């Protein structure tokens, strides 16, 4: 895989590695000590854990999925540091019985740093977009989307 030449290339590299089911290439976009929080709040604290978690998902319930980047926005936070937001569309996720599920949209945030001339992700968080919802409600051990607007 080519090295990211700009912060936004982290997002493109992530989608490319995802779509090739290459957890090693996906993890290589991250620093050794990177943090990654997924859509349900699982928090991985290093590149090896990020690779292991994605290898599992990409070989099971995401094995037929496609990840496509939509809008990508970069904000520089000083010399050699940037925040990258990307809107994803995920299609082809499988349920527990192997049936295809509906498409999902998420927004992912990468914090990237230029180290030795190469952009690497030092942190990432992915958040599901829940259509029509404004917040989540926790009750009885479950979360559900809610909209308080009249």
Structure description:
By secondary structure, the protein is an alpha+beta fold. Helices cover 19% and strands 43% of the residues. It is built from 3 helices and 8 strands. The chain has helices at 9-19, 23-27, 47-59, and strands at 30-37, 43-44, 66-76, 81-91, 104-115, 118-128, 135-139, 142-146. It has a 6-stranded mixed β-sheet with strand order 2-1-6-5-4-3. Strands 7-8 form a two-stranded antiparallel ribbon. A hairpin with a 2-residue loop joins β7 and β8 (142-146). The protein is globular, with a radius of gyration of 16 Å. The termini are far apart. The model has no long low-confidence stretch (mean pLDDT 95).
| Helix count, DSSP H or I runs of 4 or more residues | 3
Share of residues in strands = 35-45%
- Count of DSSP E strands? 8
Specify the helix fraction band.
10-25%
Query: Structural class, from helix and strand content?
Result: alpha+beta
What gyration radius follows from the Cα positions, in whole Å?
16 Å
Spans with pLDDT under 50 lasting ≥5 residues?
none
Largest sheet entry? 6 strands, mixed
**Strand order in the sheet with the most strands:** 2-1-6-5-4-3
Shape estimate = globular
Please give a quick description of this structure.
By secondary structure, the protein is of the alpha+beta class. It is built from three helices and eight strands; from the N terminus they run ααββαββββββ. It is globular.
């Amino acid at each position: 895989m080519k090295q990211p030449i700009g912060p936004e290339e982290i997002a493109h590299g992530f989608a490319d590695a995802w779509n090739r089911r290459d957890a090693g290439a996906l993890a290589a976009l991250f620093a050794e000590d990177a943090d990654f929080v997924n859509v349900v709040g699982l928090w991985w604290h290093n590149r090896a854990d990020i690779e292991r978690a994605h290898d599992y998902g990409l070989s099971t319930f995401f094995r037929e999925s496609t990840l496509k980047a939509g809008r990508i926005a970069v904000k520089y936070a000083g010399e050699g540091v940037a925040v990258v937001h990307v809107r994803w569309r995920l299609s082809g996720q499988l349920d527990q019985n192997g049936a295809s599920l509906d498409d999902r949209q998420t927004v992912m945030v990468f914090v990237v740093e230029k180290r030795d001339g190469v952009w690497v992700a030092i942190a990432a968080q992915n958040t599901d977009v829940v259509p029509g919802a404004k917040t989540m409600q926790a009750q009885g051990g479950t979360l559900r989307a809610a909209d308080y607007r009249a």
